[in-house]
C-alpha cells in the first residue's frame, strides 16, 4: 500500500481481546513486532513503525501515557494526547493492531509488582527521575507479556531507556529481539519529541543549542580529541550562553554499560545530556 492511501486500524482497548487476536496471528505463523509509544506521534515514532513493518507481518503499536514513569511533580496530566491524529498518521502507513488501554486496564487498583533494574538505570536520567525506569520497565515488561512479540523497536533518542530495556530482556529472559532506530531530528537538528509541543518560539530557538552542542562534541572527537573533560567543558560552555537552558547533566559513557568514561573511545562512547529549556525538560544524545 502506498503511504497516501489510508486504512482503518484495528484498535483494542482491553487486554483479553487483543490477546485473542494475537493468538490467531501466531497460529497463522506471522511474526509480531511491538512498538510501544506514549502517543502524540511524530516522525520519530513513525520511523520506528516503518522499521517494524520491514521486519514483521503483524505490527502492534501501543499508545499509553504510562503513569508509573512520571514523578509527582512531572507532566503526566498535561502530557500531549491526540488519539485521532495518531490513528490518522498510522492509517497512512499501513495496517496495524493498535492497543490503547485505559490506566485502570494496565494498573488495576490492587497492582503491586514492579520491575527495577539496579545498575544501568541509576545514572544519567535515573538521578533526576528516580521513578522513571522502574515505571518504564514495568510497563514494557507487561506489554511484552501481553503481546509476546518476536521483535520490539525502540528509539536511540532514549538511548539509556533502550539499553536498560535490553538489559531487562537479557536478565529476565524475555525472549524478544530488541531493535533500535537512530534519532529522527528536525531540519535544524532538534531531536523530535512529543514534549517539543510545549516549546514557545523563543524556547524552540534556544532548544536548538542542545543538538548543536552534541554535534560540536562529535566534531571535536572526529578531530582527535579524546578527553571527556575537554569535550564536556566545551559543551557546558556552549550551553551556558543560552539563558533559557539549564543543564541537568552532560556525560560521556560507555554505549553499552553506560559507565562513565574518562577517555572517549570513538564508536563506543555515548554523549548524553538532559536540560531544562525554561520549564520543559528535554534529552538528547549522540554516539561519539
Ligand atoms: P515516547 O512516546 O516518547 O515514549 O517514545 C516512544 C518510542 O519512540 C521510544 O522508543 C522512543 O525512543 C522513540 N522516539 C521518540 N522520539 C524519537 C526520535 N526523535 N527519533 C527516534 N525515536 C524516537
Number of domains: 2
Mean pLDDT: 96
Architecture of the largest domain in CATH? 3-Layer(aba) Sandwich
Shape: globular
Give the amount of beta strand, in percent: 15-25%
Order of SSEs: EHEHEHEHHHEHEHHEEE
**Helical segment count:** 9
How many β-strand runs? 9
Unreliable segments of 5+ consecutive residues: none
Question: What this model shows, in words?
Answer:
It is a single chain. This protein has 288 residues and is an alpha/beta fold. It has two domains: 179 residues, 3-Layer(aba) Sandwich (Rossmann fold); 94 residues, Pantoate-beta-alanine ligase, C-terminal domain (Pantoate--beta-alanine Ligase, Chain: A,domain 2), CATH 3.30.1300.10. The chain is 38% helix and 19% strand. The chain is built from nine helices and nine strands. The strands form two sheets. A six-stranded parallel sheet has the order 1-4-3-2-5-6, sandwiched between helices. Helix 6 crosses helix 7. The protein starts with 9 loop residues before the first strand and ends with a strand. The relative contact order is 0.13. Bound molecules: adenosine monophosphate.
Amino acid at each position: 500500500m502506498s503511504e497516501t492511501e489510508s486504512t482503518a486500524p484495528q484498535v483494542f482497548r482491553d487486554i483479553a481481546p487483543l490477546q485473542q487476536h494475537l493468538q490467531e496471528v501466531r497460529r497463522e505463523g506471522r511474526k509480531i513486532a511491538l512498538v510501544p509509544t506514549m502517543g502524540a506521534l511524530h516522525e520519530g515514532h513513525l520511523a520506528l513503525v516503518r522499521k517494524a513493518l520491514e521486519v514483521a507481518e503483524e505490527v502492534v503499536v501501543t499508545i499509553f501515557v504510562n503513569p508509573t514513569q512520571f514523578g509527582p511533580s512531572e507532566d503526566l496530566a498535561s502530557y500531549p494526547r491526540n488519539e485521532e491524529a495518531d490513528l490518522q498518521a498510522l492509517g497512512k502507513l499501513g495496517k496495524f493492531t493498535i492497543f490503547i488501554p485505559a490506566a485502570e486496564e494496565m494498573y488495576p487498583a490492587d497492582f503491586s509488582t514492579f520491575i527495577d533494574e539496579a545498575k544501568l538505570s541509576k545514572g544519567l536520567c535515573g538521578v533526576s527521575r528516580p521513578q522513571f525506569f522502574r515505571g518504564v520497565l514495568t510497563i514494557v515488561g507487561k506489554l511484552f507479556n501481553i503481546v509476546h512479540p518476536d521483535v520490539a523497536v525502540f528509539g536511540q533518542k532514549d538511548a539509556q531507556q533502550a539499553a536498560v530495556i535490553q538489559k531487562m530482556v537479557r536478565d529476565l529472559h524475555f525472549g524478544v529481539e530488541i531493535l533500535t532506530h537512530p534519532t529522527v531530528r528536525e531540519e535544524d537538528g532538534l531531536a523530535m519529541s512529543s514534549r517539543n509541543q510545549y516549546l514557545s518560539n523563543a524556547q524552540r530557538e534556544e532548544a536548538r543549542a542542545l543538538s548543536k552542542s552534541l554535534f560540536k562534541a562529535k566534531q571535536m572527537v572526529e578531530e582527535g580529541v579524546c578527553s571527556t573533560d575537554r569535550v564536556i567543558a566545551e559543551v557546558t560552555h556552549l550551553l551556558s550562553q543560552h539563558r533559557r537552558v539549564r543543564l541537568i547533566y552532560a556525560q560521556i559513557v560507555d554505549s553499552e554499560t553506560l559507565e562513565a568514561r574518562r577517555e572517549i573511545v570513538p564508536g563506543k562512547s555515548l554523549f548524553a545530556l538532559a536540560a531544562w529549556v525554561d520549564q520543559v525538560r528535554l534529552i538528547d544524545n549522540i554516539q561519539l
